[in-house]
């Protein structure tokens, strides 16, 4: 089985690299590739699409950290992303945020989009992890202002924010590759005091769950 684990930075999946290097039985049964896409939607889209055409994986996993909009999901929480929305593609007009669907520049129901959302249909894969399945927004600019935070909450009702998730969902849906996006919370949205962030802990928690998923899948696909 060919599995690609994608992350924006090496730091986000370094524990997985170490784990795989010490367990040759996984590599003897499966081709597991760690793909560093780079940060942001543009980099993720290019790297993932190129990998899909070259390797055609049986499963794609995106691993990373995220910011949380909700006090119910504090730092070190881990989630599976069920739905993705690109939140910052549009215009601020008359003090109202209007995305490309509001502007009639795109059809909110044109596949693979469903009501503005990029929805993961692979419920059996997501159900393999004991994690809450949430909605995420993807942005090219990390949200720092309280005003923009409230705009996203009111318009999209997201739980977390990342910079690559929507690109991952888009490419996998277009290429019809089963996929799972796993993210751990490193900080609350708008919190810029890095001493309050849980980066190391979030990376650790993300990789724990990626490893758990890979092992569950490996058990079902022994050669």
Task: Describe it.
- The chain is α/β, with parallel strands linked by helices and 223 residues long.
- It has one domain: Nucleoside phosphorylase domain (Rossmann fold), CATH 3.40.50.
- It contains 7 helices and 11 strands.
- The strands form 2 sheets. Strands 3-10-9-4-11 form a 5-stranded mixed barrel.
- A hairpin with a 2-residue loop joins strand 5 and strand 6.
- Helix 3 runs parallel beside helix 6.
- It is globular, with a radius of gyration of 17 Å.
- The model has no long low-confidence stretch (mean pLDDT 94).
The CATH homologous superfamily corresponds to Nucleoside phosphorylase domain
Number of strands: 11
Backbone CA Rg? 17 Å
pLDDT averaged over residues: 94
Q: Please give the order of strands in the largest beta sheet.
A: 3-10-9-4-11
Order of helices and strands: EHHEHEEEEEEHEHEHEH
Number of domains: 1
Q: Can you give the helix content as a percent range?
A: 25-40%
Largest sheet: 5 strands, mixed, barrel
- For this entry, what is the oligomeric state of its chains? single chain
Poorly predicted ranges (pLDDT <50, ≥5 residues)?
A: none
Please give the CATH architecture: 3-Layer(aba) Sandwich
Distance between the termini: 9 Å
Q: What is the CATH level 1 assignment? A: Alpha Beta
Sum up the overall morphology in one term.
globular
Structural class: alpha/beta
β-strand percent reads 25-35%
Q: And the CATH topology?
A: Rossmann fold
> Count of helices?
7
């Amino acid at each position: 089985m060919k599995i690609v684990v994608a992350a924006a930075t090496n730091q986000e999946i370094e524990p997985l690299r170490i784990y795989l290097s010490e367990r040759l039985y996984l590599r003897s049964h499966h081709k597991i590739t760690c793909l560093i896409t780079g940060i942001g939607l543009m980099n993720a889209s290019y790297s993932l699409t190129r990998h899909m055409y070259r390797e055609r994986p049986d499963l794609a996993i995106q691993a990373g950290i995220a910011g949380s909009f909700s006090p119910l999901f504090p730092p070190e929480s881990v989630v599976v992303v069920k739905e993705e929305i690109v939140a910052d593609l549009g215009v601020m007009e008359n003090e109202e945020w209007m995305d490309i669907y509001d502007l009639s520049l795109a059809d909110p129901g044109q596949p693979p989009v469903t009501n503005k959302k990029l929805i993961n249909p692979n419920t059996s894969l997501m159900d393999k992890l004991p994690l809450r399945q949430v909605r995420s927004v993807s942005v090219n600019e990390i949200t720092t202002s309280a005003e923009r935070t409230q705009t996203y909450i009111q318009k999209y009702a997201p739980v977390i924010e990342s910079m690559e998730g929507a690109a991952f969902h888009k490419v996998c849906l277009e290429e019809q590759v089963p996929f799972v996006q796993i993210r751990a919370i490193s900080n609350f949205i708008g919190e810029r005091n890095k001493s309050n962030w849980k980066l190391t802990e979030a990376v650790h928690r993300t990789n724990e769950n990626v490893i758990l998923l890979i092992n569950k899948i490996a058990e079902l696909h022994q050669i």
